[in-house]
Design brief:
By secondary structure, the chain is an alpha+beta fold. Helix content is 27%, strand content 31%. The protein has a 4-stranded antiparallel beta sheet with strand order 2-3-1-4, covered by helices on one side.
């Protein structure tokens, strides 16, 4: 199984579909799961080597929508 970094973010509920659409346009950057749709909490799984690109993506997105970084969990050791 491939190691990934887990990132939790919170965005406005109405922006979840937009966020998913944008993230999909960056093919292979991260996979996303909605943990709490009412609160807008998303879980992103990103390969460690792409964390810099994900951080740039999230930083740019903050200019368009409110985005709160909740937690970053490093990959678990095998």
């Amino acid at each position: 199984m491939r190691e990934t970094v887990t990132v939790h973010v919170r965005i406005p509920r109405r922006e979840i579909a937009y966020f998913n659409f944008l993230l999909e346009s960056y093919e292979g950057l991260a996979s996303v799961s909605t943990l709490d749709p009412k609160e807008g909490v998303l879980e992103l799984q990103v390969p460690p080597e792409l964390m810099g690109e994900l951080e740039a993506f999230l930083s740019g997105l903050r200019e368009e929508i409110p985005l709160e970084l909740l937690e970053v969990e490093p990959p678990q050791a095998p």
